From TrEMBL:
Domain HTH cro/C1-type: 21-75
Pfam name, any one: HTH_31
PROSITE patterns named among the record's database cross-references: HTH_CROC1
InterPro entries: Cro/C1-type_HTH, Lambda_DNA-bd_dom_sf, RmlC-like_jellyroll, RmlC_Cupin_sf, TransReg_Diox_bact_type
Protein name: Transcriptional regulator with XRE-family HTH domain
Keywords: DNA-binding
Species per Swiss-Prot/TrEMBL record: Streptomyces griseoviridis
Amino acid sequence: MRHAPDAEDPDPVDVRLGARLAELRAERGWTLDDLAERAGVSRSTLSRAERAETSPTAALLNRLCAVHGRTMSQLLGEVEARPAPVVRAADQPVWEDRAAGFVRRSVSPPHAGLRGELVEGRLPAGADLAYDRPPVPGLEQHLWVLEGALEVTADGTAHALGTGDCLRTRVWGPTRFRCPGPGDARYVLAVVLP
């Protein structure tokens, strides 16, 4: 797990991520105002994320992925080195939503020619992540809880999951991941593009 950078030393992943977000916006010929309107995010928040003045939250990245038609793993993979067929545990990219305490490990590197990927997620007790839309409509997800308990709401239906439980869903609308505790939750998410 990465340590939080100090104010004068931005996280290198946040710097590369900000630059990639700015590139994606520029490729479409959008201003910050255009992107803010499309994503439903303030112009200042987008500007700060592009300049790596702040580490983007999972919810912000989800909105931006939806606008750009990418999964979060694809976007994060674009700022990492070219993926290899074997990724050692020590080399798997880890990203943190520090505000929510959410830790996301890209277990399998995304690849343009493949539709599936594996992600490990960790949520501390009490954490609550809400996404207003999927990054790609119709995204197939298989969520397998490895440790702890997780409450997942998809398509308006809440699912209480415990260790060993697996939820399969196709995501069209808002989703919510909540760790009710008492301990942290650790899970594997298999994501398959439609």
